[in-house]
């Protein structure tokens, strides 16, 4: 009996050891098979759904803007072109009679000259004054913010209110002549019709009103200039005029071109300033001449022809500035 039990006890470990050796092998086979199945059949992720905010908006949302431009810009422009090339007596189209009639009017030539001189002088004065103020108020000193606010005040005033104040200042018995009389000087005819002083007064008032626009643009350009450039210039010995000419001015060139383009287009259509200060014939420009032909004489074709010439002048002067702006 003892030998039998000993054989039994000796055989059991052998069988269990065989199972023990077989189980890891099967497990290893499964372990090696699982990656093979996962590599053979890769999982496909569904395409990301586009959020609702990324969908293209309906095109009909632009309909109000298109309708506004069509009614208030496109239609009046096309109607004005039709009036300009239509014979007011026979209705024939197209005819140059309205443009020929403008050439025989002396006031038209004065308006055409004024539409060249006044914008050029006004934009030049605005650029000089705006650049000077921007360079001065860019420096750090006490009260700088208050002075910046004071400079912007003329722009914040409504145009009619501002021009009414200016007319009171430059009237024959206005504040300007009162100040001259207080220091013992004689009166000046600031707004005499057709005089050079009238043209200079219109330029001064127009520049005073809109110089803050140029000032803010140039001040923003100076603020965007890195301090490292100034420090490097100081280390290289560039100071004063040399630093302004070779560093500051080239940096501001794109801003200056943008300011000239913006203010040049706006100055070409100058209307309220010469009309309120000097009247139609005091300092005529093409816009006031067209208004004079329409309101005083009811000559719509002549008014349309003058307006068309003003539009063509604006386009002709804008294209070179746009090219230089793109190059800069």
For the termini, the CA-CA separation is 112 Å
- SSE ordering: HHHHHHHHHHHHH
What is the percent of helical residues? Answer: over 70%
Low-confidence stretches: 1-39
Mean pLDDT: 83
**Total beta-strand segments:** 0
Strand content bin: under 5%
Radius of gyration over C-alpha positions, nearest whole angstrom: 40 Å
Main β-sheet: number of strands, strand sense, barrel status? none
- Number of helices in the DSSP assignment: 13
Any overview of this molecule?
The protein is mainly α and 328 residues long. It has 13 helices and no strands. It has helices at 2-40, 63-84, 97-103, 106-138, 144-156, 159-170, 175-182, 196-223, 227-235, 241-268, 272-282, 286-295, 300-327. Helix 6 crosses helix 11. The longest helix has 39 residues, at 2-40.
Descriptive tags:
328 residues; mainly alpha; 13 helices; 76% helix; 0% strand; globular; disordered N terminus
């Amino acid at each position: 009996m003892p030998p039998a039990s000993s054989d039994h006890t000796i055989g059991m470990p052998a069988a269990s050891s065989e199972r023990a050796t077989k189980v890891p092998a099967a497990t290893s086979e499964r372990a090696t098979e699982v990656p093979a199945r996962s590599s053979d059949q890769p999982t496909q992720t569904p395409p990301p759904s586009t959020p609702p905010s990324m969908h293209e908006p309906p095109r009909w949302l632009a309909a109000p803007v298109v309708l506004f431009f069509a009614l208030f810009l496109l239609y009046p422009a096309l109607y004005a072109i039709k009036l300009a090339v239509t014979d007011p007596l026979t209705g024939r189209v197209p005819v140059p009679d309205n443009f020929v009639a403008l050439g025989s009017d002396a006031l038209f030539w004065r308006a055409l000259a004024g539409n060249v001189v006044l914008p050029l002088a006004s934009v030049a004065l605005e650029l000089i004054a705006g650049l000077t103020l921007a360079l001065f108020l860019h420096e750090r000193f006490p009260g700088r913010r208050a002075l910046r606010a004071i400079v912007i005040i003329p722009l914040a005033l409504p145009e009619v209110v501002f021009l009414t104040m200016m007319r009171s200042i430059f009237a024959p018995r206005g504040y300007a002549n009162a100040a001259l009389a207080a220091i013992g000087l004689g009166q000046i005819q600031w707004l005499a019709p057709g005089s050079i002083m009238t043209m200079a007064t219109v330029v001064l008032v127009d520049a005073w009103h809109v110089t803050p626009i140029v000032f803010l643009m140039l001040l923003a350009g100076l603020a965007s200039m890195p301090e490292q450039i100034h420090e490097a210039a100081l280390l290289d010995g560039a100071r004063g005029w040399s630093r302004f000419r070779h560093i500051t001015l080239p940096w501001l060139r794109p801003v200056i071109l943008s300011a000239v383009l913006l203010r040049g287009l706006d100055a070409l259509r100058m209307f309220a300033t010469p009309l309120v200060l000097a009247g139609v014939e005091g300092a005529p420009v093409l816009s006031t001449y067209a208004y004079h032909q329409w309101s005083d004489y009811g000559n719509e074709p002549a008014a349309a022809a003058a307006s068309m010439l003003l539009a063509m002048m604006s386009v002709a002067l804008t294209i070179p500035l746009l090219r230089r702006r793109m190059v800069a």
